[in-house]
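TA notes, week 10

Several of you asked for a full example with nothing omitted. So below is the full record: structure tokens for the whole chain, then the designed sequence directly under it. When grading your own attempts, check the secondary structure regions first.
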């Protein structure tokens, strides 16, 4: 019974997604196939969708774990059915590639996409892609340090100015020394 309810809910979600997918082609008709091809080349060169490769295996593992937890006596059958279903759904990976290509095609002209793909095919473009995670990590660290310094200096300066205006020492005592205030900035 529980298994049937889970499948009904899953079917409802899949149905809703399918209805949205049917509505999408009307928007796609405005974009030429050569424009989509240029977008696909650009997203391939930028490795835009590589991070989504794990969605299907992670989803399959999650479904297995949930169903096996509820029905431990069906573990072998659940593993088999989930694996078969995952393999049959793998072909739909192309749907994501097309949607991402359409997003890029709506934002960038065909010529711009060709330029993007050409850049990322160069050694410099590859270096940008290979080092992007390191660069982003270091940028976040620099922003966090900067934010803490700004918060510290603001607290000190506001305290000094309030003490001058109000004539009370330690107006900002107990105020954030910058760490709490900087976290909101660094995490954005």
């Amino acid at each position: 019974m529980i298994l049937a309810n889970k499948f009904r809910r899953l079917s409802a979600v899949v149905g809703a997604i399918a209805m949205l997918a049917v509505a999408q082609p009307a928007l796609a008709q405005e974009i030429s196939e050569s424009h989509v091809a240029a977008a696909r080349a650009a997203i391939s060169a930028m490795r835009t969708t590589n991070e989504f490769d794990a969605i299907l295996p992670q989803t399959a593992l999650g479904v297995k774990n949930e169903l096996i937890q509820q029905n431990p006596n069906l573990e072998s059958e659940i593993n088999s059915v989930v694996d078969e279903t995952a393999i049959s759904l793998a072909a739909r990976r192309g749907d994501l590639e097309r949607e991402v290509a359409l997003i890029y095609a709506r934002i960038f002209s065909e010529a711009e996409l060709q330029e993007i793909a050409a850049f990322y095919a160069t050694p410099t473009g590859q270096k940008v892609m290979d080092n992007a995670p390191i660069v982003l990590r270091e940028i976040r660290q620099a922003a966090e340090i900067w934010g803490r310094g700004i918060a510290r200096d603001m607290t000190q300066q506001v305290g000094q100015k309030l003490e001058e205006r109000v004539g009370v020492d330690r107006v900002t005592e107990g105020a954030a020394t910058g760490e709490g205030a900087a976290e909101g900035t660094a995490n954005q």
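The chain has two domains: 2-121, 135-186. Use that as a sanity check on your answer.
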